[in-house]
């Protein structure tokens, strides 16, 4: 009986961790953060684990104290309650203890926040993401007088075949889009995020990059990331923005610098053609890490 329970528990733990390990998209029953694709996200994952080392013991400690108090001081065992209202030693301990714990949490937390909010001075690529009910528009800054710009909509099932995106593990339902953002691996990317002037607030979020920032009409927010590996990464609008909020995903295809440059040049005159040749170069020989997305 105990052996069976132990086996079931082990299986459950493996399932939870395994589902977290192989996703650049949310997975069913995922309980952990998505695998990191940027140094910031690695730090975020580290900080989450670090915080758990404080939270779990504190929770268990409080639970045990509650149980002890409920048992030891129940009315039948303790008919005459103590009238103690002060104990200097205990008060010093429960003030100094939490202050120390909070310091241990605050220092790495502020370090991480500073790293996230310190924008790169010389980004390699500047991308502007503009949200509208309910799609994203992307513009590649610094690509001449007519910067490359396109809309990115949720990929609808009837359009899958024509787009060559029938593989549901690589192009999952409700996450795949018609036009992905294409970016070079290992380069610093600055993202300017806003929403169309008469629109509502949205949010640009890419979990495996550790990026989430509001897209506010009339305001230009800035964030950045530097990817460490190639792949196809999925995120979603993360601010409730109306009836189709769930249907404006974000897809970023991170490729080698050469492929990025070829795509950028081709996209200026023929966007669908540029995607087709990029997909032929990445999806075919599996240089895009599709295994990461396998269900
Ligand atoms: Cu939105």
Describe the 3D structure:
This protein is an alpha+beta fold and 295 residues long. The chain folds into two domains: 39-75 and 88-117, no CATH class; 125-294, Cupredoxins -  blue copper proteins (Immunoglobulin-like), CATH 2.60.40. The protein contains six helices and ten strands, in the order αααβββαβββββββαα. The strands form three sheets. A five-stranded mixed sheet has the order 3-2-1-5-8, with no helix packed on it. A three-stranded mixed sheet has the order 4-10-9, covered by helices on one side. A hairpin with a 2-residue loop joins strand 1 (125-132) and strand 2. Helix 2 (39-72) runs antiparallel to helix 3 (88-117) and helix 5 (257-267) packs antiparallel against helix 6 (271-282). The radius of gyration is 25 Å and the shape is elongated. Copper (II) ion (CU) is lined by residues 131, 202, 237, 241, 245, 248.
Terminal CA distance reads 31 Å
The percent range for strand residues is: 15-25%
- Structural class by helix and strand composition: alpha+beta
Corresponding CATH superfamily of the largest domain: Cupredoxins -  blue copper proteins
The proportion of residues forming helix, as a percent range, comes to 25-40%
Please identify, by name, the CATH architecture of the largest domain.
Sandwich
Strand order of the largest sheet: 3-2-1-5-8
Rg value:
25 Å
Q: How many separate helices?
A: 6
Q: Give the ordered list of helices and strands.
A: HHHEEEHEEEEEEEHH
The CATH C-level class name of the largest domain: Mainly Beta
Bound small-molecule species: copper (II) ion
């Amino acid at each position: 009986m105990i052996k069976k329970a132990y086996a079931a528990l082990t299986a459950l733990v493996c399932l939870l961790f395994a589902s977290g390990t192989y996703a650049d998209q949310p997975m069913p029953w995922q309980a952990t953060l998505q695998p990191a694709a940027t140094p910031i996200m690695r730090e975020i994952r580290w900080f989450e684990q670090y915080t758990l080392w404080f939270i779990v013991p504190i929770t268990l400690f409080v639970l045990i104290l509650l149980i002890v108090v409920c048992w030891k001081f129940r009315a039948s065992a303790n008919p005459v309650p103590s009238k103690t209202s002060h104990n200097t030693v205990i008060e010093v301990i429960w003030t100094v203890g939490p202050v120390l714990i909070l310091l241990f949490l605050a220092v790495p937390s502020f370090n991480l926040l500073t790293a996230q909010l310190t924008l790169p001075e010389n980004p390699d690529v500047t991308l502007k993401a503009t949200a509208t009910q309910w799609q994203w528009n992307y513009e590649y800054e610094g690509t001449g007088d007519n910067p490359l710009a396109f809309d990115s909509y949720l990929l609808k099932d009837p359009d899958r075949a024509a787009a060559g995106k029938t593989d549901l593990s690589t192009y999952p339902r409700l996450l795949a889009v018609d036009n992905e953002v294409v970016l070079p691996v290992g380069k610093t990317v600055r993202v300017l995020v806003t929403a169309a002037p008469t629109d509502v607030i949205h949010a640009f979020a890419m979990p495996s990059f550790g990026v989430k920032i509001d897209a506010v009409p009339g305001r230009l927010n800035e964030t950045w990331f530097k990817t460490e590996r190639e792949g196809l990464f999925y995120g979603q609008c993360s601010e409730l923005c109306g009836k189709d909020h769930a249907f404006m995903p974000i897809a970023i295809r991170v490729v080698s610098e050469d492929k990025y440059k070829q795509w950028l040049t081709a996209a200026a005159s023929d966007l669908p053609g540029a995607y087709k040749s990029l997909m032929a170069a990445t999806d075919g020989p599996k240089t895009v890490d599709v295994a990461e997305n396998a269900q």
